[in-house]
């Protein structure tokens, strides 16, 4: 299965998350170069589920602009941000979510009581979700242009720039997995079901995180095919060590690098050949944790881009990922059905928020 075979371990740097230089993938390189990038990428996705990609193709000034757009957005007043409110309930995931509205968890059961228990610890973050303008199932929720001039045009452009890189990564993964058709995964990824997310974790007293009365983002896996994440230099993102259950390793910020992780859909497609690893956001590193007499944590900004299959895609085991030793583990599921199950407990209606307050 796959082209990587064997026990060959990718280079271990920055803790244990491999770095892959993607410049060797881009045009004017030989097939052998592309193959070696594809192999390194796939090895990382199969052993850790996370990989830093450098020279991914998104220029640093564009990334700086994206972080500036996020900072401008989150520094608006609450009332201004609420001009683009996240719609009530879990069906549409767009617009602005104030701190506490979304509760990330790994719980996928249907028991509302368990969901409410998990909610006792609220997530201290705010976010803004953006999708394709042509996705009528998930219509965007924009601020009035006068509130944040240029924001809509810039983030829409950024969304499609990220998608160009995503398609190249999907091509490389198809090659690494050993799919005969390098375009196979692209057929399910028109780009219209991706999600660009701007995230802000405001400064909070470290004591509150330490006593676990609030969380930045608890451990979870992503529901996407894969996620491309850009983070500032604050730190705090941690990834479960697949070799040591219960241990998390820091995904230390690497300037300009994109952190790519396998999502649940790709794990199912590949029959667990590639792994969708739990990750969380917690305190920044000890040396850099506290500011001022109230021991405030630094603010953190991050920009995940969730690359997601089109809603009606049937995610079923790739023929290259099953044989007599690797029987099929998952029933086929559409992206839409899978996301619905996961979304239910992440968002509740404003009526339920008020009732629990
Ligand atoms: O903020 C981060 O670095 C991680 C965000 C994340 O894991 C998510 O939004 O799913
Ligand atoms: Fe995540």
TrEMBL record:
Q: Which domain of life is it from?
A: Eukaryota
- An example of a Gene Ontology BP annotation on this entry? small molecule biosynthetic process
- According to the entry, every stretch annotated as the Fe2OG dioxygenase domain falls at 192-309
Which terms does the record give in the GO molecular function aspect?
metal ion binding; oxidoreductase activity
Q: Which Pfam families match?
A: 2OG-FeII_Oxy (PF03171), DIOX_N (PF14226)
Matching entries from Gene3D superfamilies are given as: B-lactam Antibiotic, Isopenicillin N Synthase, Chain (2.60.120.330)
UniProt keyword list: Iron, Metal-binding, Oxidoreductase
Q: Which family does it belong to?
A: Belongs to the iron/ascorbate-dependent oxidoreductase family.
Name of the protein in its database record: Fe2OG dioxygenase domain-containing protein
Q: What lineage does UniProt assign to this protein's organism?
A: Eukaryota, Fungi, Dikarya, Ascomycota, Pezizomycotina
């Amino acid at each position: 299965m796959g082209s990587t075979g064997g026990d060959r371990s990718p280079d271990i740097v920055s803790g244990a998350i491999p770095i892959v230089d993607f410049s060797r993938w881009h045009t004017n390189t030989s097939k052998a170069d592309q193959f070696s990038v594809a192999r390194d990428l796939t090895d990382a996705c199969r052993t850790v589920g996370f990989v830093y990609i450098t020279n991914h193709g998104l220029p640093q000034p564009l990334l700086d602009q994206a972080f500036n757009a996020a900072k401008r957005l989150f520094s608006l007043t609450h009332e201004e941000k609420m001009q683009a409110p996240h719609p009530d309930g879990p069906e549409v995931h767009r617009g602005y979510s104030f701190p506490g509205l979304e509760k990330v968890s790994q719980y996928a059961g249907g028991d509302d009581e368990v969901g409410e228990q998990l909610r006792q610890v609220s997530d201290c973050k705010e976010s803004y979700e953006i999708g394709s303008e042509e996705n009528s199932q998930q219509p965007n929720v924009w601020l009035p242009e006068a509130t944040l001039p240029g924001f809509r045009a810039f983030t829409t452009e950024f969304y499609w720039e990220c998608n160009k890189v995503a398609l190249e990564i999907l091509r490389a993964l198809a090659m690494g997995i050993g799919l005969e058709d390098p375009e196979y995964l692209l057929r399910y990824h028109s780009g219209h079901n991706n999600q660009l997310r701007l995230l802000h974790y405001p400064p909070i007293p470290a004591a509150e995180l330490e006593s676990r009365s609030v969380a930045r983002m608890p451990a979870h896996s992503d529901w996407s095919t894969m996620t491309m994440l850009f983070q500032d230099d604050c730190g705090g993102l941690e990834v479960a060590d697949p070799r040591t259950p219960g241990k998390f390793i820091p995904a230390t910020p690497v300037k300009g690098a994109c952190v790519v992780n396998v999502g649940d859909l790709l794990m199912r497609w590949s029959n667990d050949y590639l792994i969708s690893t739990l990750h969380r956001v917690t305190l920044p590193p000890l040396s850099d944790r506290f500011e001022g007499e109230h021991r405030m944590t630094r603010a953190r900004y991050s920009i995940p881009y969730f690359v997601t299959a089109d809603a009606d895609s049937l995610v079923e085991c790739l023929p290259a990922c099953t044989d007599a030793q690797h029987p099929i583990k998952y029933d086929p599921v559409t992206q839409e059905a899978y996301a619905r199950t996961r979304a239910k407990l992440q968002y509740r209606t404003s009526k339920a928020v008020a009732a629990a307050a």
